[in-house]
Design brief:
Distance between the termini: 82 Å
Number of helices: 4
Transmembrane segments: 13-31
Protein name: FecR protein domain-containing protein
Oligomer: single chain
Pfam families: FecR, FecR_C
Strand content: 35-45%
CATH class of the largest domain: Mainly Beta
Domain FecR protein: 61-133
CATH architecture of the largest domain: Sandwich
Largest sheet: 13 strands, mixed
Helix content: 10-25%
Number of strands: 18
Domain Protein FecR C-terminal: 208-266
Length: 269
Amino acid sequence: MLFKSDASRNSRGWLYVLLLVITGAVVLLTWKLKEPAKPEAITAVNLEVPGVQYLLHQGETGRRTRITLPDSSVVILNSASTLRVPVNYAPSNRAVILDGDAFFDVKPGKDSFTVTSHILRAAVLGTSFRMRGFSSQQGATFYQLTGTCRIGKSYHSATDNQPEILERGQMVLANKEIDLMEKETYHPEELEAWLSDTLRIKDATPMAVSRILEEWFGVEVEMRGDASKSRTITEAAFYNATLDDVLSNLSSQQDFKYKINKNKVLLIF
């Protein structure tokens, strides 16, 4: 009877382990290669057309900025947002780039007006709408107020590049991280109230207040501490108020401190 040495058995054991490691690595690599590619990160800067110079309009934190374009179209730029307008903006070249939140009242023209964010691109002839899309966020929204609009993703999607046609009362919700764009409905009266710059808060807890501020001023609100003991705002109205004006008033009623940094707001309870 022949017996194999311990060295021979150990050698075969190590070879078996090595084969398992290699097989596992191949399986992992194959799985990684099959994962769907995530959309490339896009910022407002790399949405610029090469060779085109842009004027940069910046919205002041907590305030709205009114901009009149060369074709008399009007843009209301919300807090901490930016709008890039070509220096050679003309009736045949009405294309702007948005990073943030803005309302557009576009004058009718022979050629379409386009606004592009890192997630959405809208094309209209003469209409009004609101678009929100910060390059620091994965989500974007679009609200059609008057007229019609053709809207789609501003990046190439691996799943769906079909644009939508929107009319009054229709909106789009988009999320780049999961590569999704959905057509929904909303109440146009809410956008019209926003345009009147009359903010009304009624029966709102701190959580509800934070959501109202996010929608009204186009900011991100983070809450820290215990807000459960803070009282509900029964009713409050603010006319042409800045974000600081509103927070200063609410902070004394709901007992919190706040910090504003660009388009981010921190509420400390």
